[in-house]
Amino acid sequence: MTGPHLASTREELAALLQDARAQGHEVALVPTMGALHEGHASLMRVAREKVGTGPVVVSIFVNPLQFGEGEDLDRYPRTLDADLAVCADEGVDIVFAPSVDEVYPGGLPQVAVDPGPVAETLEGRTRPGHFRGVLTVVAKLFGLVRPDVAVFGEKDYQQLTLVRRMSADLCQGVDVVGAPTQREHDGLALSSRNRYLDPEERLAATTLSRALFAARNEASYGVDAALDAARAELRASQGVDLDYLVLTDPGLGDLPEEVPPGTEARILIAARVGTTRLIDNMALTIGAAQETNH
Ligand code: PAF
């Protein structure tokens, strides 16, 4: 199997995409920060489904602009060789792995994307500036790759929601596709951060997904029943320090006071397990029979 073409400059990337564009192929982008795992591989498969024989581009860039003070940018895992192997296995055509100078020539940008009010809730409350950094680099990647389709994991649901909003509000013309969260056999959502959990914390971490599944299983009885079921799971476990547990509409807005049966909703959770902050979320339907699981 031949591996993907590796581009580290804008010019190399443009040259690699030129033929595909000339032939009228659609281009898919999977933006990542590397340390690739099965969750990322599933995004690459969704990208391939979307563009068929068109090129799938995976970007690997640890974006300094989305790290706050005390969030250890230097310790973020950088595993390019292993990442290239994952991309090769998934038949990715191009890996774009630029340096910081290549993405931010002349230093960090003076003009950045304002992510708006949705960025001030949930993750944005504890990570000020994070989504400004995410949207700015994603906008740059959209500009450099000019994809027709970009695939993001539902695992980072607030990020996915904001990128969708940016593409629509700024008329970027990119079809932003959400790919389902991949889970371990016991429900834990796949995440690069799981590697920081010791065995005891790894066990405690399953509380997050158990709480979400419990909520989903009770959602037919209404919002309160769903939240109570999730809280009961959290109370029954140790070593999980809850940050938030919220039920929202699918766009992360408030649910109406009276929720009509059949309303689509999203439940989101964040908690610290040991020193590792984990997030997870799930779709559910209020007041309607749920597809049961776990
Ligand atoms: O989800 C990530 O890995 C990053 O936030 C992204 C979208 C690649 C932007 O740096």
UniProtKB/TrEMBL annotation:
<feature type="binding site">
    <location>
        <position position="66"/>
    </location>
    <ligand>
        <name>(R)-pantoate</name>
    </ligand>
</feature>
<dbReference type="InterPro" id="IPR003721">
    <property type="entry name" value="Pantoate_ligase"/>
</dbReference>
<keyword id="KW-0067">ATP-binding</keyword>
<dbReference type="Pfam" id="PF02569">
    <property type="entry name" value="Pantoate_ligase"/>
</dbReference>
<keyword id="KW-0963">Cytoplasm</keyword>
<comment type="subunit">
    <text>Homodimer.</text>
</comment>
<keyword id="KW-0547">Nucleotide-binding</keyword>
<feature type="binding site">
    <location>
        <begin position="33"/>
        <end position="40"/>
    </location>
    <ligand>
        <name>ATP</name>
    </ligand>
</feature>
<dbReference type="GO" id="GO:0004592">
    <property type="term" value="F:pantoate-beta-alanine ligase activity"/>
</dbReference>
<keyword id="KW-0436">Ligase</keyword>
<comment type="similarity">
    <text>Belongs to the pantothenate synthetase family.</text>
</comment>
<feature type="binding site">
    <location>
        <begin position="153"/>
        <end position="156"/>
    </location>
    <ligand>
        <name>ATP</name>
    </ligand>
</feature>
<protein>
    <recommendedName>
        <fullName>Pantothenate synthetase</fullName>
        <ecNumber>6.3.2.1</ecNumber>
    </recommendedName>
</protein>
<dbReference type="InterPro" id="IPR042176">
    <property type="entry name" value="Pantoate_ligase_C"/>
</dbReference>
<dbReference type="InterPro" id="IPR014729">
    <property type="entry name" value="Rossmann-like_a/b/a_fold"/>
</dbReference>
<comment type="pathway">
    <text>Cofactor biosynthesis; (R)-pantothenate biosynthesis; (R)-pantothenate from (R)-pantoate and beta-alanine: step 1/1.</text>
</comment>
<comment type="function">
    <text>Catalyzes the condensation of pantoate with beta-alanine in an ATP-dependent reaction via a pantoyl-adenylate intermediate.</text>
</comment>
<feature type="active site" description="Proton donor">
    <location>
        <position position="40"/>
    </location>
</feature>
<keyword id="KW-0566">Pantothenate biosynthesis</keyword>
<feature type="binding site">
    <location>
        <position position="159"/>
    </location>
    <ligand>
        <name>(R)-pantoate</name>
    </ligand>
</feature>
<feature type="binding site">
    <location>
        <begin position="190"/>
        <end position="193"/>
    </location>
    <ligand>
        <name>ATP</name>
    </ligand>
</feature>
<feature type="binding site">
    <location>
        <position position="66"/>
    </location>
    <ligand>
        <name>beta-alanine</name>
    </ligand>
</feature>
